Amino acid sequence: MNDKELIQGIINKDEKYFKIFVDKYQSLVLNVCTSFLHCKSDAEDLTQEIFVEVFLSIHKFRNEAKLSTWLYRMAVNRSLNFIRNNKKRNIIKNIGSFFTGDDKKEIQIADPSYLYEDSDDVENERIELLHKAIDSLPEKQKIAFTLSKFDKLSYAEISEIMGITLAAVEGLIHRAKKNVAKKILSHYRKTSKKGKRKH
Amino acid sequence: MNCKQTHKKIIPYINGELNPDTIHEIKAHLNSCKSCNTLYNEVIKTMSIPDKRKEITPNPFLYTRIKEQLTTYNNGAEKKAISVSYKKLLQPIIVSVMLVFAIFSGIGLGNAYFSAKPKNKIIIEKTTAYYLNDLKQERLEMTILNN
């Protein structure tokens, strides 16, 4: 069954078509969300919301782009919104705890080990450092770098998803790589200096 | 090449942006300096983490969960529509009515205060006149003379 038939079936509110659609694209959406959120449970919740949104707004799809491109865009935008809302919530929580004097901070640290192969404690530290470096990137660099490195998309696919030229994608990924490497290098330089001081 | 110079050129070295002579110098330094070599290896290992990323398998109950959410959405759609209309229409109306009420009550209170002021003045004048009228009181000189 091709995408056009699937879309028509979902527009007609046929559940059979929607199930086929979910089965076909759930892995794509989940993996993109996980790449941005670095947390499987949050990514699963978001994937669910994205499919609900797709079911309700599939009539807005104009067949100008591929269905997968539309889904990638939706997953990227929703993931970035999720991160922004989380940041806002954390700021409000911190302000609240500052005034109430409640120092108990609910920090939810996602265990990254299940996202990567052969990860131990040392590797988990590296993973956390990389995630922090990526999260500190400007939004466009973050999107291009994540889609390229984690979701293994080609530059052409990324340019289609982001709606920019191939050269722009190349530039974004190059700058992102440099910035991430700078962050990682400065972290290790700091830790090695601290280590030297201790000795 | 010393450690500081090597640190500055590690990133271009990783990205392959240096000329052959500088590459050779950095390679020589990395072979001789243990701390720089460790630093370089750590950066390389951290940067290569995305290659080890596993593909996440979706939850087998995802479709059931989506279906459930859609059912709750359809049931709550009417309620949501009411709440949306409340938020979009009723809320600004209530806020503007309250604002107008607050402005007018402020003006009213101000007027009442200023119109009440002259009345207070008369009362004060009367009371002071009463207390300063000491004609009926005994004069100080007479008290001294009598004593």
Describe the structure.
The complex is a heterodimer of chains A (199) and B (147). By secondary structure, chain A is mostly helical. Helix content of chain A is 76%, strand content 0%. Chain A folds into 2 domains: 1-110, RNA polymerase sigma factor, region 2, helix turn helix motif (Rna Polymerase Sigma Factor, Chain: A); 113-199, Winged helix-like DNA-binding domain superfamily/Winged helix DNA-binding domain (Arc Repressor Mutant, subunit A, Orthogonal Bundle). Chain B is 80% helix and 0% strand. Chain B has 5 helices and no strands. Chain A binds chain B through residues 15, 19, 22-23, 26-27, 30-31, 34-35, 40, 43-44, 47-49, 51-52, 55-56, 114-119, 123, 126-127, 129-130, 149-150, 174, 177-178, 180-182, 184-185, 188-189, 192, and chain B through 7, 10-11, 14-15, 35, 38-39, 42-43, 45-47, 49-50, 52-59, 62-63, 65-67, 69-70, 73.
Descriptive labels:
heterodimer, A: mainly alpha, Rna Polymerase Sigma Factor, Chain: A, Arc Repressor Mutant, subunit A, 2 domains, 8 helices, globular, B: mainly alpha, 5 helices
SSE diagram, text form:
The complex is a heterodimer of chains A (199) and B (147).
Chain A: H1 3-11, H2 15-37, H3 40-57, H4 67-100, H5 121-135, H6 139-149, H7 155-162, H8 166-198
Chain B: H1 3-14, H2 20-32, H3 34-47, H4 62-132, H5 140-146
Number of strand segments of chain A? 0
**Unreliable spans of chain B:** none
Mean pLDDT of chain B: 81
Unreliably modeled segments of chain A: none
Name the chain pair with the biggest interface and residue counts per chain.
A-B, 44 and 31 residues
Q: What structural class do helix, strand and pairing data of chain B support?
A: mainly alpha
Element string of chain A (H = helix, E = strand): HHHHHHHH
CATH topology name of the largest domain in chain A, in short, is Rna Polymerase Sigma Factor, Chain: A
Cα-atom Rg of chain A, whole angstroms?
Answer: 20 Å
- From the helix content, strand content and strand pairing of chain A, which structural class follows? mainly alpha
| Main sheet makeup of chain B | none
Q: How many domains in all of chain A?
A: 2
Sheet-strand content of chain B, in percent, reads under 5%
